[in-house]
Design goal:
170 residues, mainly beta, Immunoglobulin-like, 7-stranded mixed beta sheet, 3-stranded antiparallel beta sheet, 13 strands
């Protein structure tokens, strides 16, 4: 069971011919007065048309500027990368995860229900779907009715389904 709390995320998914590029910003908070080291596993949706990403980049970022402060080492165990973060007592860490996943079928999935093991809803989740390189969004399992084009935002969010999307290539 996690010791820190996963409270917020901002996910940008760029869809383009043959792949999706994910840029996720995650906020973890430590409610305890002592520092905590939390191990984390980053799951991917894997199937024949969506293989394991060949690489993943994880870094701690400054909460105000978004600039990378330090790279975080990643260890692959099977199909899931794992890494650890140190969160100061009564503090927080902002972690950025970036990866590219091939997509043979002009579709993609971002796993949202992996929030459930944290046992608390996200305070806030922001999600943006960006078409690139001639791609055009066809569908999203969540309505894209947020403040940014191609986005949705949720507060007190405990997802009950994954975020699935499709696109066409012009």
């Amino acid at each position: 069971m996690p010791v820190v709390r996963f409270t917020r995320e901002r996910i940008e998914v760029a869809v383009r011919p043959g792949a999706i590029d994910v840029d996720g910003l995650y906020v973890y908070e430590n409610p305890w007065p002592v520092p905590v080291v939390q191990g984390l596993k980053y799951p991917f949706p894997i199937d024949e048309a969506h293989p394991i990403p060949s690489s993943i980049e994880v870094s701690e970022v400054d909460p105000l500027s978004g600039q990378a402060l330090r790279s975080i080492p990643v260890v692959w165990l099977g199909a899931a990368p794992r890494y650890s973060i140190r969160v100061p007592g009564r503090g927080s860490r902002h972690i950025r995860v970036r990866y590219t996943q091939s997509s043979g079928g002009r579709s993609g999935t971002y796993l949202l229900t992996t929030t459930r093991p944290w046992r608390q809803p996200l305070v806030r989740g922001e999600y943006v779907l960006l078409p690139k390189g001639g791609a055009r969004i066809l569908s999203s399992s969540y309505p894209l009715d947020g403040p940014e084009p191609g986005s949705f935002t949720k507060e007190g969010f405990m997802p009950d389904k994954e975020w699935e999307f499709t696109w066409a290539e012009d």
